[in-house]
Amino acid sequence: VRENFHESLDTITDELVAMAQQVAVMLHEASQALLTADRERAEAVIAADEEVDTLHQELELRTTELIALQQPVAVDLRLIVASMRISATLERMGDLAQHVAKAARLRHPDSAVPAPQVEQFRAMAALADDMVAKMVRVLATRDVHLAIEVDHEDDQMDQLHREVLEGLLRSESPVSVNEAVDATLLNRYYERLGDHAVSVCRRVIYLVIGDREQ
Amino acid sequence: VRENFHESLDTITDELVAMAQQVAVMLHEASQALLTADRERAEAVIAADEEVDTLHQELELRTTELIALQQPVAVDLRLIVASMRISATLERMGDLAQHVAKAARLRHPDSAVPAPQVEQFRAMAALADDMVAKMVRVLATRDVHLAIEVDHEDDQMDQLHREVLEGLLRSESPVSVNEAVDATLLNRYYERLGDHAVSVCRRVIYLVIGDREQ
Question: The whole model's pTM is what?
Fold first, then answer.
């Protein structure tokens, strides 16, 4: 039974990694759809979110079942509880990628990014891709150093977030109210995506450090 | 041991109710700080969020301990898992109330709500108060009908959310980019608060319906 149990734990980790990879692809595609005003690419991301939601629901059921059937304690239980949390966060990241894609779709054939902000959003999108790619590797390898890198990258994300906001409010590059609304929401989506990537990495750090303390 | 266990479950429910009540007060105070541009009231909300975060962390530790020590199954386990989720959602609602208060503080002594939008935000704040008050009662009483009411009220919240957005984009009541940024974020905070209140209520419905199926 214990052997099956540890196989089940490995399966949960594999599924989290697969889910995180799917979120990484969605986010990349959503950013490209946004930056190139590509409606079809946006539609594909919007459709893909359902799969992430389903993966999350399945994982929630499975982890609860696993606790009931195997009654894990200590490290194993902490891993399962952390997995439930991480799954919920990944699901939310999928939602945010979908929000980015929906913003792109809404303004098509125009771009949802105001012209003066394009470079800043390109930088935010690239940083988000990088953070999420590292998050996937952290989930797969539990590399604490990489997890800490994601934490530091989030400082850059917060800085970009402030710069977009300041750019909007600066009068020399005037944007319309419509553009301001879009840019404000998109700016927030990327900032939240960064926060969530950090939250996933911190949970992994906590598991690794906790394990050492056992 | 089982008797202690059920006492522990009751304690968890009591703590969730207390946490939800605190969120309800924070949200009400944040909305009032926003609508009256009251800096002191905003500061109090910003400071109060730490307590909600602490309650959430304590509850997360306690529920994990309870699973490890008591190895609950079926209904009891589902209740504990749902409590963990609800606690995380309440913590997030506290963050959003804090965001509302921070927006109020940032613009003080001006109002963060553009003059043409004041009535709409007043309506959103009142609706949010009502939804969250009902959510508290749903947590305390598991009243499914009340939970469904919250679900319906969220349709009104979504409608108000759309109206604020349309109001911003309508040219007859021009707002500045600065005002548009504030109103866009505040609009989103209230919409998310509504979503979270619904999510808490749905988890309670799921527990009650699930119980009936046992």
Answer: 0.93
